[in-house]
Fold this sequence. Notes:
The protein is mainly alpha-helical. The chain has helices spanning 11-46, 51-83, 94-147, 159-170, 182-192; strands at residues 151-154, 175-178. It has a two-stranded parallel sheet with strand order 1-2.
Amino acid sequence: DSTDRDPQLFLDYLLHAVLDYIVDGYGPLVDDIEEEVLEMEARAAESFLDREEVNHIFVLRRELSRLQRMLGPMGEVALKLARQELPCIEEDARVYFRDVQDHVRRVQSRVDALRDALNSVFQLSSLLEQQRVGTITRQLAAWAAILAVPTAIAHPCDDVSLQSVIEAARINLIEPILVGPSSKVKAVAEKAGVDI
């Protein structure tokens, strides 16, 4: 008869109730984080995450890491209470601690999945940003090629060099910049009959 039982022995059921209450309290917290992660996944797929959203990913990851650090010892305690013969834990109460251990494992599994999802959101955001930067870079390169003015710097010290530069400029291949001692360049141009 349970009423004849020593009140000290009811500690096993009280301990179970406390542990179960604590572990069940993690559920709503994980649910809230899960909702945030799902919303973030949807936003990341639609558009680029801004700096605030990326920072929020790291805040959520820290919260999940903190939760994992709490769940680890809780699972170990529940495992010991379920498997070890302890003076204040009756044999028929151990099944309740196995139940707590199962709840801890389920919460740990959800936390692991959420951490993976946050990593995926961050990677997706990074890949989309890289793709966008690549597209912009290609567009800028195309415009640079269209707008570029080919320039050549020449030091024409003989007739052939000067004639080559003048011919390339005449057919719009280059916009030449002549460098060197001006008297020497002018003398070569005069000798070749070229007006510079």
